[in-house]
C-alpha cells in the first residue's frame, strides 16, 4: 500500500486531501504542526510521498524537509506553497524536494497527477532522461556532485513557467544550460531565441527585443517582429543582462509584470508567453547595490538562480570534456595521453570551457590525425605573450620605458633646445594615446578570443568606449 504523509496547518486542507487520496487506495497520515511531524516514528513507518506546506505555525517547511530527507532520503517530497513563497519552494527543490504545488489548488487533477508522477518516478530512468537532455544540449554533467545537483535543479525548474537567472564566469556555458532548461521544459517544441545584451547598442537592442514598425527610425524600411514576439510560447535567453541600459531595463520590467509590449514606433499592445532566462557573468545583486541594475527587475528575474561553477573548480571533468569536444570536432577516434590530460588539468582556465574548447580545437587541427596527442602538442594560452604591433618609434619608447623616463627625456630636450612647440607636442601625445589604446584593446580582444564584452570588463571601460576606440582605428 502507498503511504502518504501530509503536513499542513489548515485542518480543512488536510482532511480534504486525506479523503481524496484515501479513495484512491492510499494510506494517509496527516499532521497539522511541526511538533506533530517531529513526533512521527520515521524509523518504523515508511512514507512514499510527503506533501509539506512551507508555512506551519511553529516551524518552516524547509526544516521538515531536511528532517525527512535525513531519515527517509528516498521519500518523494511535494512542497505546497503560496505564490509569494515560490522562490522558497525552489530552494526546497535544491534540498531534495521533487516538485512543488501552488496553493490554493485550482485544479485537483493536476495535484493528483503530480503525486502519481512521483510514485511512478524511476530514479534510473530519470537519470537517463537528464543525461540525454544534457548531451543533446551540449552539457557535460561530469563527476562533481555540485554539477549533478545543478542539472537536477535545472531539470525540476524547467517544468515550471518561472523566470530563471543564471550566473557564472564568461565561458562556463550559461547559454548551454539555458538550452538544457528549454529542452527539459514543456516548451521544447517551441522556439529558443538567444540574444547577447552586451553585444549591440541600446537602440538596436530595443528593436531586437520588441520589433519595430516601418518608418519607426532611419533604416526601418519594413515592419520587423522582435524576439519576444518570435519566441511565442518558447524560451528567450538574454545573455549579459547586466549590460542592458536603464531604459531597456524599464521596458523588460514592464514585459515581466504585464506580459505586454509594443513595437518601436507602434501604439498597439502585443502579448507574449515566452519564458525568460537571463544570464550574467557578474553578480547582479552587487550590481543592484552599486546602482547599475534595477532592484525591481532583479527580483523579477531572480525567481530561480542557478550558479555554474568555473572550470577550475571542476577539473576532474576535463577528461569528459575533452572526449565531448573531440567528438564535436568530428575526431572521436583521437586520444590524449595521460600527460596531456594532466597538463590541461594543471591550467586554471580563466576563459573556462570556451577557452578549453579553443585549445582542443587548435590542438586537433595542428596535429597529425593519426597520432596520440601528447603534452608537447598542447600550447596553453599563457605560454604566449601577445605583443602589440607597434606603429611608431615613439610608441615603442612609451611602452618599453617607464612613462616617467619618457617625460624626463622630453624635459631634457626642451632644456637643450630652449624652445618647443607645445601644441604640436600635445597633438603627438594625443596620437600616441590613440595608438596605444588601440593596441591594448586589440590585445584584450586576442586574450578573450574576440569577446568584446569580456575585453571591456578587463579594461574597466564601457562597451561604448571600446567601440569608439576600435572605430578610431578604422579611420586612422
What does this structure look like?
The strands form four sheets. The protein has a five-stranded parallel sheet with strand order 2-1-3-4-5, with helices on both faces. A five-stranded parallel sheet has the order 7-10-13-6-14. It has a two-stranded antiparallel sheet with strand order 8-9. Helix 6 crosses helix 8 (174-184) and helix 7 crosses helix 8 (174-184). It folds into four domains: 3-121, 3-Layer(aba) Sandwich (Rossmann fold), CATH 3.40.50; 128-307, Rossmann fold (3-Layer(aba) Sandwich); 312-383, Orthogonal Bundle (Helicase, Ruva Protein, domain 3); 393-475, Arc Repressor Mutant, subunit A. The protein is built from 21 helices and 14 strands. The longest helix is centred in the C-terminal third of the chain and has 26 residues, at 422-447. With 476 residues, it is of the alpha/beta class. Helices cover 49% and strands 12% of the residues. Residues 383-403 and 472-476 have low confidence and may be disordered.
In summary, what is this structure?
By secondary structure, the chain is of the alpha/beta class. Helix content is 49%, strand content 12%. The chain folds into 4 domains: 119 residues, Response regulator (Rossmann fold); 180 residues, P-loop containing nucleotide triphosphate hydrolases (Rossmann fold), CATH 3.40.50; 72 residues, Helicase, Ruva Protein, domain 3, CATH 1.10.8.60; 83 residues, Arc Repressor Mutant, subunit A, CATH 1.10.10.
Amino acid at each position: 500500500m502507498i503511504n502518504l504523509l501530509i503536513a499542513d496547518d489548515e485542518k480543512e486542507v488536510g482532511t480534504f486531501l486525506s479523503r481524496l487520496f484515501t479513495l484512491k487506495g492510499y494510506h494517509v497520515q496527516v499532521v497539522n504542526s511541526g511538533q506533530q511531524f517531529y513526533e512521527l516514528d520515521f524509523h518504523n513507518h515508511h512514507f512514499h510521498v510527503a506533501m509539506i506546506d512551507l508555512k506551519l505555525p511553529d516551524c518552516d517547511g524547509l526544516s521538515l524537509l531536511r528532517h525527512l530527507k535525513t531519515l527517509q532520503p528516498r521519500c518523494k517530497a511535494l512542497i505546497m506553497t503560496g505564490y509569494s513563497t515560490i522562490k522558497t519552494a525552489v530552494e526546497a527543490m535544491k534540498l531534495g524536494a521533487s516538485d512543488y504545488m501552488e496553493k490554493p489548488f485550482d485544479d485537483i487533477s493536476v495535484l493528483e497527477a503530480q503525486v502519481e508522477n512521483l510514485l511512478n518516478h524511476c530514479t534510473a530512468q530519470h537519470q537517463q532522461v537528464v543525461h540525454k537532455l544534457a548531451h543533446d544540449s551540449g552539457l557535460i554533467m561530469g563527476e562533481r556532485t555540485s554539477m549533478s545537483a545543478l542539472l537536477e535543479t535545472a531539470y525540476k525548474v524547467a517544468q515550471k513557467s518561472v523566470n530563471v537567472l543564471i550566473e557564472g564566469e564568461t565561458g562556463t556555458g550559461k547559454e548551454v544550460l539555458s538550452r538544457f532548461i528549454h529542452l527539459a521544459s514543456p516548451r521544447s517544441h517551441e522556439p529558443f531565441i538567444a540574444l547577447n545584451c552586451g553585444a549591440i547598442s541600446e537602440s538596436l537592442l530595443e528593436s531586437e527585443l520588441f520589433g519595430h514598425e516601418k518608418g519607426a527610425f532611419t533604416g526601418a524600411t519594413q515592419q520587423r517582429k522582435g524576439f519576444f514576439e518570435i519566441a511565442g510560447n518558447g524560451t528567450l535567453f538574454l545573455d549579459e543582462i547586466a549590460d542592458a541600459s536603464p531604459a531597456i531595463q524599464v521596458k523588460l520590467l514592464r514585459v515581466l509584470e504585464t506580459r505586454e509590449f509594443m513595437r518601436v514606433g507602434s501604439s498597439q499592445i502585443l502579448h507574449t508567453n515566452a519564458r525568460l532566462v537571463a544570464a550574467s557573468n557578474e553578480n547582479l545583486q552587487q550590481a543592484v547595490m552599486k546602482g547599475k541594475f534595477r532592484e525591481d527587475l532583479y527580483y523579477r528575474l531572480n525567481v530561480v538562480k542557478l550558479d555554474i561553477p568555473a572550470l577550475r573548480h571542476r577539473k576532474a571533468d576535463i577528461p569528459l570534456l575533452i572526449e565531448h569536444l573531440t567528438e564535436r570536432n568530428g575526431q572521436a577516434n583521437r586520444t590524449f595521453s595521460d600527460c596531456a590530460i594532466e597538463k590541461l588539468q594543471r591550467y586554471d582556465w580563466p576563459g573556462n570551457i570556451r577557452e578549453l574548447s579553443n585549445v582542443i580545437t587548435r590542438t586537433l587541427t595542428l596535429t597529425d590525425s593519426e597520432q596520440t596527442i601528447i603534452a608537447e602538442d598542447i600550447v596553453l594560452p599563457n605560454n604566449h605573450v601577445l605583443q602589440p604591433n607597434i606603429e611608431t618609434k615613439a610608441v615603442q619608447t612609451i611602452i618599453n620605458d617607464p612613462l616617467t623616463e619618457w617625460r624626463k627625456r622630453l624635459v631634457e630636450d626642451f632644456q637643450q633646445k630652449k624652445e618647443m612647440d607645445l601644441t604640436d607636442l600635445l597633438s603627438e601625445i594625443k596620437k600616441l594615446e590613440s595608438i596605444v589604446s588601440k593596441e591594448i584593446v586589440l590585445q584584450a580582444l586576442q586574450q578573450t578570443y574576440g569577446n568584446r564584452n569580456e575585453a571591456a570588463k578587463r579594461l574597466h571601460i564601457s562597451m561604448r568606449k571600446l567601440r569608439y576606440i576600435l572605430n578610431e582605428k578604422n579611420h586612422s
